[in-house]
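USER:
Try writing one entry.

ASSISTANT:
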Amino acid sequence: QQLNDLENVNNSRNGYAVPRRYSTMLDEPVFSRILSSKASAQRRQAQKTQRQQEQQHEYDDDNEDGWGDLRKKKRSVFKGLLKLPLRGYDSLVVMLRRQRYAQKQPGTLVLVRHGESTWNANKTFTGWADADLSERGKREVEHAARLLLEGGFEIDVVFTSRLKRAIRSVWIILQEMNQVYLPVFKSWRLNERMYGALTSLCKTELAKELGADIVQEWRSSLQTQPPPVTVNHPYWPGRERKYADLRDNQIPTTESLLDCMNRATPMWENKILYELRNGKNVMVVAHANTLRGLVKKIDNISDEEIQNVAIPTGIPIIYKFDSIQTMNSISPILSIEDRQTACQQHMNGLFLEKPGLLKQALAKEAEWSQQVPGYNPTMERSSKTPMSALERSLYKLAAERELNQWAGKFVDPLAVAEDDGTDGNNGLPMQLMSNVNGRLENVGDGVDGPPNGESNNNGEATMSSVGTGSGASTTPILSEEDDATDENDDTKIVANLVTQPCVTSMPSNVLVPGLGATPIRKDAVIVIIRHGKTEHNKLGLFTGWEDAPLAKDG
């Protein structure tokens, strides 16, 4: 106010006004003090604003998927006033809570890499491109859910990325486990590594053109970044709505393996670790390189050793922890009789199945289904089958394992392992560990060939034992039992279509990749949809809280 008064009086002298903060007619010392005081206030305000913005950015980062609001607790003013004169009692309560908290056991962490995508299948650099699951990928994550059911794992909360191949993997797993109601949080920090200008290019063709050494350097080196993507690139993620809440510096144009791992680290420190310490069982369904970043943090793996760690698609990795204070991962105990589970060099996580078994089985599935009449009806059991979801999944798991053992007889142990697109271990087979005389030793890639050097090249299917113990049966687990599968149901469902939409949206300038200018509604609306018809609806039954599945036409 004093500065304004001086300017109002002095700036109009001699008939003209001079710019603010500049006048030879003002008393210089007084003016300097006023300006200095005002500048200090402006600096303090700017610092305060910057701190508020940083705090808001931290909150927005934690709350990008709504997780921050769930963790945030509302504090009662009335309760605070009551506690004000009772500081001693409050301290005692805090101490007792800490003791009770110290006795709590940490939760279990389940890591699952999404199933094979359509771009994985044709050896394409994917990164932030939103490729969907292939048919084999869907089978892989279904199998992962059955392994979790067999192990008796109860999931409390799920974290995943914003890419559809990971999100769809979550849907399939939770549907197979009959736990679709679980909270799922999607974070860009769990997205795959950004491959920059390499996105959508074929790995094998690029290796022929530029040289295998250069391409392998981009894939496996810890700090080498591929050429960056430009804003004109068709797969630049800045145009996608799913990233509209991110700041410009949060959308990468290229990343090294280390950059990707560092991006995923705050998810572990701020969210996953919090849930585990509260005794929650957490499942993370993400991508190879972001999961490697979590594994590097959990097992304290060095920069050199992490390059030898690979994460296969569709196989759950289980982590147990010693206490909520230290959260050190516990090394798994493998029994000599256990031929299903495995662990990898440098990792304390336990694979619920040896990598490669399901992939080799799916390659021989058509031949196997012709030899075993009961296989197809078992795998086609749907929610209409009169058995629980757990029973149905375990029957399918048993059938898949029988197929695994039979397909293993055709594996050539000297054949070069197929590169499945995983950047870990320089594209080489995974180095698995096995219990030998009470200690873990390296046993190679874990995929066994024909026993005792025998081969079975005549193509004839032979029944193998189911199970691994001495009491394993050589009788097929499949039988000609009734499973209520509607194989002969040729009923055609005619959809009720509305030829004219109720509301016509106005054209806009929004460009959708592959579609061009597309009309998109900009006004605020609420979309209300009732679920599709269930079998209970069709039969006229009261449903309520009964968890009836959708009918086929529903």
